[in-house]
Design brief:
91 residues; Alpha-Beta Plaits; 3 helices; globular
Amino acid sequence: MHGRHQTCRSAVSVVSSSGMLGKPQVYRYVVDMLTPENAEIIARSLRIIPDISGVAVHPRRGTVEIKARRDMQQQVRMACDIAKARFRTRV
């Protein structure tokens, strides 16, 4: 069993040295024409992406927040297109 844990640590070290592991950050985007209905579509679209660990969509504020290890602006833009909302900018 000790050998199994040793292998896991080695695998994590390899991934970490390549820059894939890091602390997830919150990225915020401003989205126009955001309604409760298309906010739900955006949230569902983003939650299926494995690289995104958290999603919050605020229709009243007109913002989309994601938690990820890297900026996922392209994916947020696509989700907005699918939901018929207008991506404005990253904050």
